[in-house]
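4.2 Preliminary Data

To establish feasibility before requesting continued support, the project team ran the inverse folding procedure on a target of 478 residues. The structure was first converted into the token representation described in Section 3, and no sequence information of any kind was made available to the design step. The complete token record follows.
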């Protein structure tokens, strides 16, 4: 495929793939705004409503690895189109859902389609752009979509829900999905699956164990706050997930054609970049959600003001993603932008960890927002390149699935853990007689401080363990 498209066609293919990814990124936040309307219309209870979000997260997190490997085995173009079809049809089902059960089931199917699209799109991009300078620019555009899509989703969700209905946030995916499908069919050449040297056989036991392990882990994490982190259900689910993961590793070490060649993790930059990605996502995802709550519940911002408060960080990330990051990587390599960017993001979190209860936007919010936008814009693109740079083309789908799984699980776990610490601090302070707003504020400050610890550790590991450049040129992973 890398030789089949040249010049402008490759860049057009990139934009089409990014449009498909944008649908997935938007969907992670666009639904959140519409939850009150969904609850009222379909008469969800509070406990049932969370499954509109959790059903999607469960299948999305569970199928990232499998989706990426299926792309390697049976053709990335074929899997991208399959994932796109699943996501688009499930969006139609969501928009037409007349019952709670149908909406939740359709959201689960959306998650499967979204996982396949996300895993395969990144591998398609890395295979389309093999020259380092062009790959840096292409990854920058992909990073831009991932960085600002969430904020756009929140704004778009508010507009569609307010002026149309909650169903429109799902139905808007239909014209987008159909357009992307038709353009991909016309532009992307067919590929047979370069890792199908085993006759196209799939490691079914490996697929079953790792997918089940990831889904159980996600389920335990997203319900940890509600059930209690030390409760028997949470610990039991995490224990079963760990046992399934261990069984998966045993299977992969013995099977002739493994779903995941364990030799991949001998690629140093891939292994280190995924550890760094987990820590970074744990700090950054939690900051995104908790800072929005701090602005709204402590400083009294309206939802529109909260959205506008994130604009400076989004603009900075956009500037880096659409040009500056590629220039920095070409000029200074991958390692230095990663650890410096993470260190800057850590400083931004530390500024939030000292934000006062009567904070001023220009003094107490904007500096931290700007540093976090600068750090994320500087580090995200080279971190993706470091993770994918040494991987052979036939394993790129799997490596992409690993990268996305790391970010997804790191973000979910970080948010759950930091929210638990914030909640525990708030409850303890209330019990000690502190007023509700002050207790809530000090709970958020503790969470920001712990988040800074995560990103600071990520910066140390990135600067210490990542190689200055990908020197193996696609070292064998087997």
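Position-by-position output of the design step:
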């Amino acid at each position: 495929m890398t030789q089949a498209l040249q010049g402008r066609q490759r860049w057009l293919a990139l934009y089409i793939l990014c449009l498909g990814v944008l649908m997935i990124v938007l969907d992670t936040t666009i639904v959140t705004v519409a939850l009150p309307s969904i609850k009222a219309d379909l008469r969800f209870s509070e406990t049932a409503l969370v499954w509109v979000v959790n059903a999607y997260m469960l299948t999305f997190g569970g199928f990232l690895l499998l989706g990426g490997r299926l792309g390697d085995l049976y053709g990335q173009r074929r899997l991208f189109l399959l994932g796109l079809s699943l996501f688009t049809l499930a969006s139609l089902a969501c928009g037409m859902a007349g019952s709670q059960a149908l909406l939740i089931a359709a959201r689960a199917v959306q998650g499967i389609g979204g996982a396949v699209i996300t895993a395969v799109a990144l591998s398609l991009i890395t295979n389309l752009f093999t020259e380092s300078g062009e790959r840096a620019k292409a990854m920058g555009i992909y990073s831009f979509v991932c960085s600002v899509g969430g904020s756009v989703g929140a704004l778009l969700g508010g507009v569609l829900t307010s002026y149309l209905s909650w169903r429109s946030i799902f139905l808007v995916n239909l014209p987008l999905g159909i357009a992307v499908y038709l353009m991909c069919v016309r532009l992307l050449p067919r590929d047979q699956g370069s890792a199908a040297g085993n006759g196209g056989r799939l490691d079914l036991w490996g697929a079953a164990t790792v997918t089940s392990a990831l889904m159980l882990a996600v389920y335990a994490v997203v319900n940890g706050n509600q059930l209690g982190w030390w409760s028997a259900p949470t610990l039991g689910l995490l224990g079963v997930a760990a046992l399934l993961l261990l069984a998966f590793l045993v299977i992969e070490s013995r099977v002739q054609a493994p779903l995941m060649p364990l030799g991949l993790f001998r690629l140093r930059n891939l292994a280190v970049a995924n550890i760094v990605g987990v820590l970074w996502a744990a700090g950054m995802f939690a900051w995104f959600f908790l800072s929005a709550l701090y602005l709204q519940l402590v400083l009294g911002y309206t939802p529109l003001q909260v959205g506008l408060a994130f604009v400076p960080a989004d603009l900075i990330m956009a500037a880096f993603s659409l040009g500056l990051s590629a220039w920095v990587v070409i000029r200074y390599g991958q390692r230095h932008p990663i650890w410096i960017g993470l260190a800057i993001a850590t400083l931004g979190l530390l500024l939030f960890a000292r934000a006062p209860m009567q904070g001023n936007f220009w003094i107490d919010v904007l500096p931290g927002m700007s540093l976090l936008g600068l750090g994320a814009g500087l580090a995200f693109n080279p971190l993706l390149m470091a993770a994918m740079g040494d991987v052979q083309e036939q394993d790129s789908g799997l490596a992409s699935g690993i990268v996305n799984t790391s970010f997804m699980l790191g973000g979910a776990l970080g948010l759950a853990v930091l929210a638990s610490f914030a909640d525990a601090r708030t409850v303890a302070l209330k019990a000690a007689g502190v007023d509700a707003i002050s207790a809530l504020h000090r709970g958020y400050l503790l969470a920001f401080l712990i988040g800074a610890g995560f990103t600071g550790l990520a910066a140390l590991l990135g600067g210490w363990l990542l190689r200055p450049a990908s020197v193996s040129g696609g070292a064998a992973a087997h």
